[in-house]
Amino acid sequence: MDLSGIPVVDSHCHPFDPAKEDDDFRVYFNMSLWRPPTEVVVDTVMNRKLMRELGKFLGAPHAADQEQIAKYRNELYKSDQKGYIQRMFKSANVDIMLVDTGFPHEEFTGYSVDLKIFADLVPCKVFPIFRMAPTIFKIFKDLPDTFEEAVDIMNKNLERAVKVDKAVAIKSIVAYETGLEIKKWTEKEVNDAYKRFKKEKNRQDEKIIRDYFAVMGMKTAGKNDIPIQFHTGFGSAPNLNLFEANPMLLADILADDEIKETKVVITHSGLPFTRETGYLCSVYPNCYCDVTAITPYVVLALKDALLEILEFAPANRIMFGSDGVIIPETYWFGITQGVKALGKALDELVTGDWITAKEAIEFAELILHKTAKKIYKV
Question: Phi, psi at residue 319, to the nearest 5°?
Fold first, then answer.
């Protein structure tokens, strides 16, 4: 099923600065923080597919090998960066980008990317997502005298993001830090934990503090009727404990009376916990998911992941995107190959007589752009 004519909302991605590409572009198709050498990456299935598709897209000589295609790409990119970027995004039919402005960020990568400058590079409408992590990082680095001061800093940053910067969502990466089993703690419990943590850093009190900030983010999102995204599932090793990133750990907080009206997005569909994600999206009316990061990093798995999610979840709870970063190919390859994978998944459902061809197109429209436009109000 050819879905390439349907516009795409990239519901979670990152800004990039072409000047910061400081390595062989192929190594960026890997989620390890220990950047692998090129000779490791070139023998992955994903890389072989990427280079073949890239060669065709760029019009590289038919007999060109991987190294020749890489050289050809670098020459084209350096000669006209903006033109190259625009060509890629137009070919992927990306209409809107929801951009996590907190990565790259000075606190983690040594630099940030100005959203206005990035928006000028791409031929799409761009909207910001507020990532809580840089603010939380600074709080833990500076450790203000009292927890009340820390809360005030977080509140001011959240309010500015929503009211001034017009963020269309809030993003939490607490899965990376202390896990997704988020609990609501009393003011006394959190204040006591903060006092203990200032005296001696420990994971138990750190979790109480980070849980509190995550709940703050959820409440702020709910109050302003915008979604909050949670990183779930696979991610940047070795910082991530995959068992603590299982989206099922969110079940209790999703059902909390103060939270149950807040739209919560399970990013990356919790891969490899995609059935669990589908289940959560089917039983919690405030729960959504996206398939970002599966595209582009493991797009080979996307067809099966989508079918697992759709075993449980309504199609109007699933969104699309890339989680692209650093180089334009992560967005282009993720979106174009992801759309093909979605087409194959829907074809399978039609062939199996689960849905009609007309319903398959309706599902595709929901997943590729309609649901994201509705819940992010873009």
Answer: -125, 170
The structural domain count of the chain equals 1
3-state secondary structure 338-354: HHHHHHHHHHHHHHCCC
Domain at 245, CATH number: 3.20.20.140
Query: What are residue 137's phi and psi, to 5 degrees?
Result: -55, -45
Give yes or no for a cis peptide into 314 (omega within 30° of 0): no
Domain-located, residue 1: no
pTM comes to: 0.95
Instruction: Kindly tell me the sign of the dihedral angle through the C-alpha atoms of 262, 167, 334, 346.
Output: positive
Helix (H, G, I), strand (E, B) or coil at 172: strand
Q: What is the DSSP letter of 250?
A: G
Nearest to 325 by CA among 37, 170, 100: 100
Q: Is omega for the bond preceding 238 within 30 degrees of 0, making it cis?
A: yes
Name the residue type at position 153: I
Burial string for 15-34 (b: 16+ CB within 10 Å, else e) reads bbeeeebeeebbbbbbeeee
- Determine how many CB atoms are found less than 10 A away from the CB of residue 368: 25
Kindly state whether residue 74 falls inside one of the protein's structural domains.
yes
* DSSP code per residue over 45-105: HHHHHHHHHHHHHHT--TT--HHHHHHHHHHHHHH-HHHHHHHHHHHTTEEEEEEETTSS-
The domain in which residue 222 lies consists of 8-376
Q: At what angle do helices 133-142 and 147-159 cross, to 10 degrees?
A: 160
Percentage of the chain beyond pLDDT 70 is: 100
In tens, the pLDDT along 272-282 reads 999 999 999 99
Provide the mean pLDDT of the chain. Answer: 95
Joined together, the tokens standing for residue 27 give 């190594």
pLDDT, one tens digit per residue, over 87-141 is 999 999 999 999 999 999 988 888 999 999 999 999 999 999 999 999 999 999 9
